[in-house]
Amino acid sequence: MMRGMGNMQGMMKQVQKMQKDMEKAQAELNLREFVGSSSNDLVTATFTGDRKMKDISIKEDVVDPDDVEMLQDLVIMAVNDALTKVEKETEATMGKYAKGMPGF
């Protein structure tokens, strides 16, 4: 009976260590910056790993009051590009913790 309890304690310690490692990895990821861009880098958007926009840059020559839709499309393209990069890095960083765990 005691042998089973020792295994359970060992497993709980492993789970606690993995949880701390995950929290550390997530915190480090949140500090990183990801820059997305539209075609020809006319618009760039910078996000942190926790998906908060820090900056957006729009080149002057793309601003045309008669063609607002193009600027909107470029902003959307840059934002989506940055968020895709955040998502890929989050999966690469955090996905390793879910591998081999039931239900993930």
From TrEMBL:
Q: Could you tell me the keywords of this UniProt record?
A: Cytoplasm, DNA-binding
InterPro entries given in the database record: YbaB-like_sf (IPR036894), YbaB/EbfC (IPR004401)
The record's annotation in Pfam families points to: YbaB_DNA_bd (PF02575)
- One Gene Ontology cellular component: cytosol
Is Lyase one of the keywords?
no
Q: Does the keyword GTP-binding apply?
A: no
Annotated region Disordered: the residues are: 1-23
Q: Where is the composition biased (Low complexity)?
A: 1-17
Q: Which HAMAP family match?
A: DNA_YbaB_EbfC
Physiological role: Binds to DNA and alters its conformation. May be involved in regulation of gene expression, nucleoid organization and DNA protection.
In the record, the note on similarity to other proteins reads:
Belongs to the YbaB/EbfC family.
Q: What is this protein called?
A: Nucleoid-associated protein CI088_04765
Q: What organism is the protein native to?
A: Enterococcus plantarum
